[in-house]
Amino acid sequence: MAHGDDTYNLKEVLVTFKSCLNDKQEILMDPYLEGWKGLVSFLNTMGAIFSFVSKDAVSKIQIMEDFRSSDQKDHYETLQSMVSYELKNGLVDLKKTGVYPTSGCRTILRLHRALHWLQLFLESLRTSNSESRTSLLCIDSYNASLANYHPWIIRKAATMAFYALPARETFLENMKVGTIEEAVAMLGEALPSIVQIYDITQALYAQHNLLDLP
Ligand code: 1PZ
């Protein structure tokens, strides 16, 4: 899969998320992280103003890749196996940050919340029209999701960065999937798999009471 900046294509990234599910409806860690890396490459095409965002995403991806290359790697093969392994062995700070500030469960939760923002944002972009402003779509979807978990200073920085987003048509062209119409159609085809990954993760975390991990 090509994620280099010059061969970049958002469709491939979204399709990677589709390949995350095994036949037991479990989410495979490696393609999940691969999908995230692709999103970070896309974000990096939007300029240095977003580097504080991509740095945080990269460090979280790195935490998870380190688990995947550790002695415990087999326990991190799927999100489901990670949750049961970490909970069974008391490797998660459940109430406040303590011994395990970088558990897999809390790290994936941060990415999972960001995936909800992505879903709302791309869906609003898909259904918007040529008069819509990308920055406003982005602010609305952020306020409806991720902002609820961010302190004031991050919300402020994020909102300011959103004003630097390219106009809708440029944004859609930057996806590198052809014309604006083709980009919109691609979103319609690819977003359901993002939604499915989001929903399965959400149910898994809800079932184990992990949605508020510090
Ligand atoms: C297309 C425009 C892209 C805008 C990106 C929208 C997301 C704004 C998020 C701002 C995050 C700022 C940096 C640091 C945040 C961290 O404090 C939090 C919580 O982690 P903790 O501090 O508890 O360890 N991190 C997050 O919420 C994860 C953020 C990941 C954002 C990934 C965005 C991917 C963008 C894909 C673009 C197509």
Largest sheet: none
Percent helix: 55-70%
End-to-end distance: 34 Å
CATH topology, what is it called? Glycolipid transfer protein, GLTP
Shape: globular
Hey, roughly how much beta strand do the residues contain?
under 5%
Under CATH at level 1, the class stands as Mainly Alpha
Care to count the β-strands? 0
- Low-confidence stretches are 1-6
> What is the CA-based Rg, rounded?
17 Å
> Cofactors and ligands present?
ligand 1PZ
Count of all domains? 1
Keywords for this structure?
single chain, 214 residues, mainly alpha, Glycolipid transfer protein, GLTP, 9 helices, nucleus, cytoplasm, Ceramide-1-phosphate transfer protein
Summarize the structure.
62% of the residues lie in helices and 0% in strands. It has 214 residues and is mainly alpha-helical.
Describe the structure.
α1 (10-18) packs antiparallel against α2 (29-44), α1 packs parallel to α9 (180-207) and α3 packs across α5 (104-126). The radius of gyration is 17 Å and the shape is globular. It is mostly helical and 214 residues long. The protein has one domain: Glycolipid transfer protein, GLTP (Orthogonal Bundle), CATH 1.10.3520.10. The relative contact order is 0.14. The two termini are 34 Å apart. The protein has nine helices and no strands. Helix content is 62%, strand content 0%. Ligand 1PZ is lined by residues 39, 42-43, 46, 50, 52-53, 56-57, 110, 113-114, 117-118, 138, 146, 154, 158, 165. Ligand 1PZ binds next to α2, α3, α5 and α7.
